[in-house]
């Protein structure tokens, strides 16, 4: 049994080595996103099979019932027959391996050389921590401390003169019982909120949304490994912005014009009403093809970022996705007006191959 567990552990290491080797391929595809659960993700690995027992020919040439190896009591099936048809060529076997999201985040950090995030300022919420390292006289039976209870019973028996060394039986009574006590020790627990804001106007097509979906998955995976408490808010906008759920964010059909300031106003309202900068580490991410309805609205966006949003957040990230219908002007305007702001990070993605570098740009500062 020990040998089997050792072999399985070695195989798991081989599988994880394969994942690390091909991680950049997964960073640029949406293959993993549909297989992601709450804490694990299923990763398809072609050409790797888990060792297992299978039916086959007996090397000795003899079957268990004395017949020739490979014979069947029901008669042999003709070659090439069976449901779906049979062939004589080896198939490509794909194994789906369950990997914990924390482990996947560790692989991401190693691949892109991402630093651990240091929570900004005092944005740490105190949570009740502690250990069961104390003793008390009352408590539930599940927390009874056997050694201390027996010791008290023994001392009571000796002091009262009822202890018999020839028949050393000790019967604990209720007053002898002692119970484990959990001593409270407040511990800092960093909390963070992520705002994913996406332009869903007519110029943002299915390919652009898929790139946003991939980036958002890896960003959330990394930030969840850095914060125990992470909330995600999804905002979509065309000429008007609104908060939506995860499914709507990635499946809403594009339509309408573009007014970026509507998303920034809604994000700022959420921060003011629900996520005080004194208590939360705040990460807004905005995805667009760079179109905005007017230069005046772009000026309003720049003003809101400089005066209201950037002072309240750990980092603001703008990711511009290339579109056949988008001008790409908004990133140029942000870089020109706010390029000196360390809290602002912008990136351009022409296709899925640029996703890893965009993720590195967003997460590489450790803010």
Low-confidence stretches are 69-82
Q: What is the helix/strand order?
A: HHEEHEHEHEEHHEHEHEH
Return the average pLDDT rounded to an integer.
80
Strand content: 15-25%
Biggest sheet details: 7 strands, mixed
* CATH secondary-structure class of the largest domain: Alpha Beta
- CA distance, first residue to last residue: 47 Å
Overall spatial form:
elongated
In short:
35% of the residues lie in helices and 22% in strands. The protein has ten helices and nine strands.
Topology overview:
Layout lengths: L1 H20 L1 H5 L12 E7 L47 E7 H12 L11 E13 L9 H15 L18 E21 L6 H21 L2 E9 L3 E4 L1 H6 L8 H15 L6 E8 L6 H15 L6 E6 L7 H10 L5 E6 L5 H9 L4
Parallel strand pairs: 4-5, 4-7, 7-8, 8-9
Antiparallel strand pairs: 1-2, 3-4, 5-6
Helix pairs in contact: 3-5, 5-10, 7-8
Task: Jot down its keywords.
367 residues; Rossmann fold; 22% strand
Task: Note down, in words, how this protein is organized.
Helix content is 35%, strand content 22%. It is of the alpha/beta class. The chain folds into three domains: 1-52 and 91-113, no CATH class; 125-185, no CATH class; 190-363, Rossmann fold. The strands form two sheets. Strands 3, 4, 5, 6, 7, 8 and 9 form a seven-stranded mixed β-sheet that branches. Strands 1-2 form a two-stranded antiparallel ribbon. The longest helix has 21 residues, at 206-226. The radius of gyration is 31 Å and the shape is elongated. The relative contact order is 0.12. Mean pLDDT is 80; it is low at 69-82.
């Amino acid at each position: 049994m020990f040998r089997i567990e050792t072999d399985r552990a070695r195989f798991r290491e081989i599988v994880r080595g394969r994942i690390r080797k091909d991680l950049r391929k997964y960073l640029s595809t949406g293959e993993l996103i549909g297989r992601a659960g709450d804490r694990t993700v299923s990763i398809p690995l072609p050409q790797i099979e888990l060792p297992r027992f299978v039916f086959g020919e007996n090397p000795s040439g003899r079957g268990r019932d004395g017949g020739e190896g490979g014979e069947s009591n029901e008669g042999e099936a003709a070659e090439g027959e069976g449901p779906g048809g049979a062939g004589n060529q080896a198939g490509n076997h794909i194994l789906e391996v369950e990997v914990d999201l924390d482990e996947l985040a560790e692989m991401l950090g190693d691949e892109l050389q991402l630093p651990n995030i240091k929570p900004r300022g005092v944005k740490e919420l105190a949570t009740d921590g502690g250990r069961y390292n104390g003793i008390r006289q009352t408590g539930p039976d599940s927390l009874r401390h056997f050694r201390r209870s027996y010791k008290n019973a023994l001392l009571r028996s000796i002091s009262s003169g009822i202890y018999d060394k020839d028949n050393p039986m000790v019967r604990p009574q209720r007053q002898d019982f002692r119970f484990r006590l959990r001593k409270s020790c407040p511990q800092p627990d960093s909390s963070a909120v992520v705002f994913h804001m996406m332009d869903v106007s007519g110029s943002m097509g299915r390919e652009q949304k898929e790139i946003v979906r991939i980036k958002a998955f890896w960003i959330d995976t990394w930030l969840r490994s850095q914060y125990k408490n992470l909330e995600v808010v999804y905002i979509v906008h065309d000429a008007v912005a609104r908060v939506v759920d995860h499914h709507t964010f990635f499946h809403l059909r594009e339509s309408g014009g573009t007014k970026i300031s509507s998303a920034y106003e809604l994000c700022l309202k959420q921060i003011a009403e629900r996520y005080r900068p004194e208590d939360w580490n705040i990460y807004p991410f905005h995805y667009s093809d760079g179109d905005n309805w007017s230069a005046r609205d772009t000026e309003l966006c720049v003003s809101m970022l400089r005066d209201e949003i950037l002072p309240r957040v750990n980092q603001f990230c703008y990711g511009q996705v290339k579109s056949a219908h988008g001008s790409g002007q908004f990133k140029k305007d942000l870089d020109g007006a706010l390029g000196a702001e360390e809290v602002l990070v912008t990136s351009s993605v022409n296709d899925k191959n640029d996703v890893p570098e965009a993720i590195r740009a967003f997460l590489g500062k450790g803010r």
